[in-house]
Every structure is written in C-alpha cells, then in structure tokens.
Amino acid sequence: MAFTSLFMAHVPDADPERDACLLGTEKYKLYVRLVKGQAQALEVCRTLVKEEGIEAIILCPGFTHKDIAEILEVVGPTVAITVARGDGPSSKISMEAMKKAGWF
Q: Which InterPro entries match (predicted)?
C-alpha cells in the first residue's frame, strides 16, 4: 500500500477537474490539484480523502490559517496538513514572478 498525498495550489484560472494529475510509484502516490478558491479546495479535499484515501495534504503558501482550519474540519484529525512556505527573499521573488504572469 502506498503513502498517498495531495498537493494543492491556488491559481486564478484553475479548474480542479481539468488541472489535475497523479504521480506515483509503488510506495508513493501524489495527487496534484489546482483550485481557484477555498470552496473548490474544500470540495477537492473532501472528495480525495474519501475516494483516494489521502493521508497528507500539502498546501501552497496562498492558504491562510483560516483556510487550513476549514480544511482540517472537512478532512478530520487523521489527515496531516502542511503548508509550503518560503523565506522572505524567496517569497518576494515568487510574488514578483506571479505579478509578471498576471495573477494579481
């Protein structure tokens, strides 16, 4: 049985049905979903935990503490939740690149 996780990122023009993939080996399955907002994030988490047995969720830095708390309520205490956050300089570089790409 593989360790199963989900990486999820906020993207302004995302469609979680279209913008999805699965990478895996015998020991690890990584589901990736891009979502437009919190409502989609909650639905993706609810569905994948139930249908695919997600054991850990990795979130992009765009998720707030409130968002994370809402996800925890949906998935329950048996699913690990982590957030990928960079240091100050890295965050600045990422924000500039996102601005350049038209995210804001």
A: DUF6506
